[in-house]
Description:
Layout: E1 4-9, E2 12-17, H1 39-72, H2 77-84, H3 88-100, E3 104-106, E4 112-114, H4 116-138, H5 143-156, H6 159-173
Antiparallel strand pairs: 1-2, 3-4
Helix pairs in contact: 1-2, 1-4, 2-3, 4-5, 4-6
Amino acid sequence: MSRLETxxxxxxxTDIDRAEDELTPPPEGTGxxxxxxxxxxxxxxxxxxxxxxxxxxxEDYVELIxxxxxxxxxxxxVDVAKRLGVTGATVNKMIARLKQxxxxxxxxxxxxxxTDAGRKMAEASRARHHTVVALLxxxxxxxxxxxxxxxxxxxxxxxxTLTAFSEFVKKQKL
Length: 174
């Protein structure tokens, strides 16, 4: 029996299947992925992954804008474009979208400023990023690779997973 619970993840409401699987799972590490869960649970996993992809770019922009403001005192579109490796036109389109979503404020020919909601999102994304880097470092991944691999991973992990990562890292430091 499926029991869906609505939770907020990355600022998006999503349904998580909390029911115990009706299938007897095959031995660990074997078989098709779908053999390890019910159809409803697998569908909820794919839905969560799609939602994470949708918010990933928004979070990356907001986090980078916060980094630029914190490091340089301002976030200019040209600096965002350089750091992301995209064109100025691409940044301008995204800044307009972020403004509509109430994550940034802008004025013509001026820097980009985060709203309170934008700063909150940036801080949450930054914290997730540091948690994933710490886990990767704790399991032996070199620093450069950990930072590179963490980019993207932090958007896909649930709060439960991030908490487990953090607890694991704490135990490794004892």
